Prior knowledge:
The chain is an alpha/beta fold. The protein contains seven helices and five strands, in the order ααβαβαβαβαβα. The longest helix is centred in the first third of the chain and has 26 residues, at 2-27. It starts with a helix and ends in a 6-residue tail after the last helix.
Amino acid sequence: MKRFHGLKALWLLVAVLAFGLVACAAIQPTKPMTATDFVNQAKKHITEITVAEAKAKIESGQPVVVLDVREPKEYKRGHLPKAVNLPRGLLEFKVTKVIPDKNAYVIVYCKSGGRSALATLTLKRMGYKNAVSMAGGWKAWVKAGYPVE
């Protein structure tokens, strides 16, 4: 009988130690992420469209919201036609007032595509089902020679 209790105690000790090692491994810091890491991770969970696809969608006559997530100074220097400016830093706080319809088709863009990828992921997490990021951003739009305001 004592031997049985000894084995039981040994197994309990092994289980506690194993759990402790797993718990310690779970709280160990991971490699710090860079801005590029965050953008690449976001791009795995969103849809990106080209500037040509964005232009076609905007000109299709179908309802679309063009969301510029750059800073106001950048927006004032030029933006896509009919774009609404909502800086990425204020997105979570103001987007429901700017875009109340969570089923709206939203084309998100920034200067080169990084902020828009992050913003699009945020919109998806907030329930916006049809938010897409414009790959290449403002720079790609201008390089393509498309109209600006």
